Amino acid sequence: AITAGDAFCSVEFTEQAMFFAVNILTKSGPLGSIWLAAHDIKKLKKKEVLQTDIIKSCKDIGQPQVEISLRTSAHLLYGIVRIFSKKAEFLLADCNNTRERRNVSQVVATTLEV
């Protein structure tokens, strides 16, 4: 333990080991896909991104079953942001595809009427 003190305050700092359970960050673990998204989003498949429950993952990070360090929490939150971004990209692509198909079907319908 390190002790720092002066006339106004006496504070004692203890060295605590920051740790986390490795099994929660494995690819098959509850936060594995989020950890992977934080470090290499290209390794995640579209299915894995879409299956990720962002709300549940945020709760798991905010109230972890095992103690995790602040740095690890920051990496996991970054992973959530990247997964959310990917989900938004997929939604935009789906909307554009739907709009394009609708436009094509309208053109075909007007062509058949003529």
What can you tell me about this protein's structure?
- This protein is mainly alpha-helical.
- Helices cover 59% and strands 7% of the residues.
- It contains 4 helices and 2 strands.
- A two-stranded antiparallel sheet has the order 1-2.
- The N and C termini lie far apart (87 Å).
- The model is unreliable at 1-18 (pLDDT under 50).
Structure summary:
The chain is mainly α and 114 residues long.
Q: Mean pLDDT, nearest integer?
A: 82
Report the uncertain regions: 1-18
DSSP summary: helix tally: 4
Oligomer: single chain
Inertia-based shape: rod-shaped
Amount of beta strand: 5-15%
Report the structural category. Answer: mainly alpha
Number of E-type strands:
2
Q: What is the helix fraction of residues, given as a range?
A: 55-70%
Distance between the termini: 87 Å
Task: List the helices and strands in order.
Answer: EEHHHH
Q: Which strands sit side by side, in order, in the main sheet?
A: 1-2
Major sheet: 2 strands, antiparallel
Query: What is Rg?
Result: 24 Å
